[in-house]
Design brief:
With 289 residues, this protein is of the alpha/beta class. The protein contains ten helices and nine strands. The protein binds pantoate (PAF).
C-alpha cells in the first residue's frame, strides 16, 4: 500500500495505472475510518483493479462554530485498517496541497445544497462539492463509492457529476449500523454514555415510521409528527429537522409517491447526528424527475 501526499506523485500513479487499463475505484473519506467506510472500501476492492482512498479533513466544509479542530484523527489506525482491506493507495494530502494560497474556486450545486442539512450548515455542501470535484479530477476513478448515511451528500454529488459531465459512475453503499441501529459515524465518539444510549431512538423511530408510511394509512406530515414526538419522548435530543423528501430531487412531498426519504438531523448535546430511511411509496401515479 502506498501513502501518497503530493499531487505530482498521485498523478504519476494514476497515469501508470490508466496506461495499463486498470479500473480505478475511489472512496473519499475524512479518516477516523469505521465499518461504514470499510464496507465501501471492501466493495471498491472487490469491483476494481486499483482501490484508492483519500483521507483529508476538508476545512472548507466545516462552519466557523463546527468541530473541525476536534474532528477525530488517527492516522496510524487508519493506515492499519486500510492495509488490512488491501487498499492500494491512500491519498493523504496536506491542507496546503489541496488549498494553496490564492485558491479562488468553488463548486456549488444550487437549490439542493441549502435545504435539509444545508439550511443550518451554510456553505457545507459547497465545501463538499469543491473537494469532491478536485479529488475526482486528481484520482480519475471509474467508480466513486459513497455511503447512504450522508444521503443528501450523495444526491448533491450525483447532480454535480451529471451537470459537470464528470466521467465517473457513482455507487452508494448501505448505512452500517450499531446493534441498536445507530448509524456509524466518526462523530458518535463525541457522545457520552447517556447520549449514546438515547441515540438508538433515531433508527428505531425511523423503522417504525417506515412501517406506518408504507401501510398507506398516513400522510407524510403525520409520519413527521410521529417521528418528532417519539424522539422527543424517548430522548433529550434537539431535533434540527425531520422531512419527507423525494429521493431523486429532494423536494418535499405531500404524498408517498415513488421512493421517498424520511431524513432527520438531531443534536445530542453538542453532537449533531443524521440518519434517513427509504420509504417505498404505495401511490405510484407520479414520475420522478
Ligand atoms: O463524507 C465525507 O466524509 C466527506 O464529506 C467527503 C465526501 C470525504 C468530502 O470531504
Amino acid at each position: 500500500m502506498k501513502i501518497i501526499k503530493s499531487i505530482s506523485s498521485l498523478k504519476k500513479e494514476i497515469t501508470k495505472n490508466k496506461t495499463k487499463n486498470r479500473r480505478i475505484g475511489f472512496v473519499p473519506t475524512m479518516g477516523a475510518l469505521h465499518e461504514g467506510h470499510l464496507s465501501l472500501i471492501r466493495k471498491c476492492r472487490r469491483e476494481n483493479d486499483i482501490c484508492i482512498i483519500s483521507i483529508f479533513v476538508n476545512p472548507i466544509q466545516f462552519g466557523p462554530s463546527e468541530d473541525l479542530a476536534q474532528y477525530p484523527r488517527d492516522k496510524k489506525k487508519d493506515k492499519l485498517l486500510a492495509q488490512k482491506e488491501k487498499v492500494d493507495i491512500i491519498f493523504y494530502p496536506s491542507k496546503e496541497t489541496i488549498y494553496p494560497r490564492r485558491f479562488l474556486t468553488n463548486v456549488e450545486v444550487t437549490e439542493i445544497s441549502d435545504i435539509l442539512c444545508g439550511k443550518k450548515r451554510k456553505g457545507h455542501f459547497r465545501g463538499v462539492t469543491t473537494i469532491v470535484a478536485k479529488l475526482l479530477n486528481l484520482v480519475e476513478p471509474e467508480t466513486l463509492y459513497l455511503g447512504q448515511k450522508d444521503f443528501q451528500q450523495t444526491v448533491i454529488i450525483q447532480q454535480m457529476v451529471k451537470d459537470l459531465n464528470f466521467n465517473v459512475k457513482i455507487k452508494i453503499g448501505p448505512t452500517v449500523r450499531e446493534k441498536d441501529g445507530l448509524a456509524l459515524s466518526s462523530r458518535n465518539a463525541y457522545l457520552n454514555i447517556q447520549q449514546r444510549r438515547e441515540a438508538g431512538v433515531l433508527y428505531r423511530t425511523l423503522k417504525e415510521a417506515k412501517k406506518r408510511a408504507e401501510s398507506g394509512k398516513y400522510t407524510p406530515q403525520k409520519i413527521i409528527n410521529f417521528t418528532s414526538q417519539t424522539i422527543r419522548q424517548e430522548s433529550k435530543a434537539k431535533i434540527e429537522y425531520i422531512e419527507c423528501v423525494d429521493a431523486v430531487n429532494l423536494k418535499k412531498i405531500n404524498n408517498f409517491y415513488n421512493k421517498t426519504i424520511l431524513a432527520l438531523a438531531a443534536k445530542f448535546g453538542k453532537t449533531r447526528l443524521i440518519d434517513n430511511i427509504t420509504i417505498n411509496g404505495t401511490k405510484k401515479n407520479k414520475t420522478q424527475t
